[in-house]
DNA sequence: CGGCTACTTGAGTATTCTCAAATTGTGTGG
DNA sequence: CCACACAATTTGAGAATACTCAAGTAGCCG
């Protein structure tokens, strides 16, 4: 594999939320991993995935965690009786598989949304590396904690926000994540389907569509399939927060 | 403080879910902490709280994590614009405050539901202890991961289960946690209000009441204020899973 | 170009919420 | 110990949001 020193621009992301989404604590961008440090101790394997392919599935033996280098993926959870849900969307710089640490098998699925390049970090080696390098251990811990905080924020959003508010919050979240990677926060292409967004937001896909249509008709965004322009960030923030005042 | 060797019966809890709630992966009981080991490195301080008192509040400097020794508490999250939510209920053996690790200040509230005894574990000392004792670090990591898995399970429940199903799942969850501590899983007293349960389940308190009333009228449980008898665990499990078939 | 999937839109329904009131329990002070 | 005030719980009726079902349109891939 291409083992040249590959500086992950992950460092651009900080714990402090520079432009947090009002209704949604910007925890999601916390936790950064120093790949170069890891390389000293862990044999990093590269994987390439096409859209639709699984990085891992629930039930498969847990052997490694993964760092997304390029592309987009989603995590999904399926219960015994078939109910399912998208639990997270992942992009460059995100760690995947940490939720299975300590378990014999993976506890959820990871599926590519487009062409991906993912670095595999064998867990036994990672564990040893973390014991040797406190800095690494702290980064892993920070990632785990960030995950908890992010989940909690979304749980709050699900409990307290209406459908349109949740969709607005989601768009702002995506925008801020794109910005954190150096892309435009005004114009981006969603990598996931309406159904995926709906699942993540605890809605139905028709409801997501309707929310997008409505936000579009308000002039806050422009949507063309998966291509999104954010036209009025301030107003969108306001929608995500308050917005119980709705005069169609 | 009373620093005699106080064996936390937490060890009774295992990663394997002995009698999982069907619709709800029983992750919540994973993660155990070896207090005696911690005592060797960390000065453990004891706190007593009365119902309603806060162990910590969002915004206060983060200095320690806490181990619940007796009593019940809840965690809560409040957004800038005042929306709030109960994120977790805690009991004997649970670690609290881990979600604030790495942050300057606590990111959520912790409030006692009744008289509590909580052990404070100053974080700097914990950090050092974890670096010295890999076993401890693994326990902390396991706790964090268990937290993630538990949150994800509830998120799935919120997305895919109706109000009554969620309430049923909650009762089964409480029952299994009580059982894990050696108490009856058929008869217990809820320590939190209907409003707390509702907040945790992303419902309104009236809806929780109605669900309890209905489950009671079906003969699956008996409810008297906060006192609950589980009369038909099997049926309750079935409700928590399927139960879209509802003939009032 | 054809078949498939994803997305959009509409109409009616259903679950849960909101608002309101009654009831019951809890704690405090007389 | 009782009376009172306050908080929690229960119940009802109506409203609203999001869902279900259905159809139609539009992109995508071979």
Describe the structure.
The structure is a homodimer. The first copy, chain A, is an alpha+beta fold and about 250 residues long. Helices cover about 35% and strands about 20% of the residues of chain A. In chain A, the strands form 3 sheets. Chain A has a 4-stranded antiparallel β-sheet with strand order 1-8-3-6. In chain A, strands 2-7-4-5 form a 4-stranded antiparallel β-sheet. In chain A, β10 (about 220-225) and β11 (about 225-230) form a beta hairpin. In chain A, α2 crosses α3. The longest helix of chain A is centred in the middle third of the chain and has 27 residues, at about 135-160. Chain A starts with about 35 loop residues before the first helix and ends in a 7-residue tail after the last helix. The relative contact order of chain A is 0.16. The interface between A and B is large, with 51 and 51 residues. The structure holds a DNA duplex (30 and 30 nucleotides).
């Amino acid at each position: 594999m291409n083992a040249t020193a590959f500086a992950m621009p992950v460092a651009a992301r900080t714990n402090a939320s520079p432009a947090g989404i009002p209704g949604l604590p910007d925890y999601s961008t916390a936790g950064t991993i120093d790949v170069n440090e890891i390389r000293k101790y862990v044999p990093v394997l590269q994987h390439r995935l096409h859209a639709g392919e699984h990085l891992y599935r629930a039930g498969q033996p847990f052997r490694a965690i993964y760092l997304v280098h390029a592309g987009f993926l989603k995590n999904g959870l399926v219960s015994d009786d078939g109910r399912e849900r998208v639990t997270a969307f992942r992009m460059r710089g995100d760690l995947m598989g940490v939720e299975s640490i300590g378990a014999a098998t993976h506890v959820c699925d990871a599926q590519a949304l487009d062409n991906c390049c993912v670095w595999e970090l064998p867990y036994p080696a990672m564990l040893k590396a973390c014991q040797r390098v406190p800095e690494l251990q702290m980064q892993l811990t920070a990632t785990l904690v960030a995950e908890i905080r992010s989940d909690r924020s979304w749980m709050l959003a699900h409990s307290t926000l209406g459908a349109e508010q949740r969709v607005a919050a989601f768009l702002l979240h995506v925008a801020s994540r794109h910005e954190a990677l150096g892309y435009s926060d005004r114009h981006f292409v969603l990598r996931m389907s309406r159904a995926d967004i709906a699942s993540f937001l605890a809605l139905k896909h028709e409801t997501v569509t309707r929310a997008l249509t409505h936000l579009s008709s308000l002039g806050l965004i422009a949507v063309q399939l998966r291509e999104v322009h954010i036209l009025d960030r301030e107003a969108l923030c306001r929608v995500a927060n308050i917005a119980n005042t709705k005069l169609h």
